[in-house]
Amino acid sequence: MISAAALSCNQSSSQNQSSKPNAKHIGGHCEGCEAIYESPVPFEKLTAVDTLPDFYDTGPKLVISGMVYKVDGKTPAKDVVIYVYHTDQNGLYSKKGNESGWGQRHGYIRGWAKTDKNGTYHFVTLKPVAYPGRNIPAHIHVTIKEPDKNEYWIDDYLFDDDPLLTNQERQKQEKRGGNGIIKLTPP
């Protein structure tokens, strides 16, 4: 099993969910971000740890552990919902056949966690594989939902040792939510 070094993302200082009157909206267009609301577990019952459905399949095991901070970069942010999804061991967003909503596009390898009082979260999964026949690094998509704010995306989690993660690709990263390039470490 390999694990990712702790990641962090700063909460935005914008106010409230966009559906509320006089609320500010965080970020711009966010295609597919509404998938965060498709959690099979109500947000109030989510825990800080989620094991994605592919974990028991064959492939390199991966634990992603992170900490979310408030905008000051020091204070842990609790109750932040994090939605992730990624490709399977063939580089595809595989389906089991019963997906609905955004699961039809994102596939079945997706998960939801909510930061604990220390701002920490953990996802247990397999390391995704890059899309077949394309020069895009393997990645994990991430959507964030802070309490009383709208959902928004941050930079994908990328893997520092990925040969497709060129210097040019590294410079394209917006560092939206912190540095999404993670170094894998043995357990």
Number of strands: 10
The quaternary organization reads as single chain
Q: Major beta sheet, specifics? A: 5 strands, mixed
Chain-averaged pLDDT: 87
End-to-end C-alpha gap:
6 Å
Number of helices: 2
What best-fitting shape do the alpha-carbon axes yield? globular
Which structural class fits the helix and strand makeup? mainly beta
Secondary-structure element order, as H and E?
Answer: EEEEHEEEEHEE
Helix fraction by DSSP (H/I, runs of at least 4): under 10%
Strand order of the largest sheet: 2-6-3-1-10
Q: Poorly predicted ranges (pLDDT <50, ≥5 residues)?
A: 1-24
Rg from alpha-carbon coordinates: 16 Å
| Proportion of residues in extended strands | 25-35%
Name the descriptors:
five-stranded mixed sheet; 187 residues; globular; 2 helices; disordered N terminus; 10 strands; mainly beta
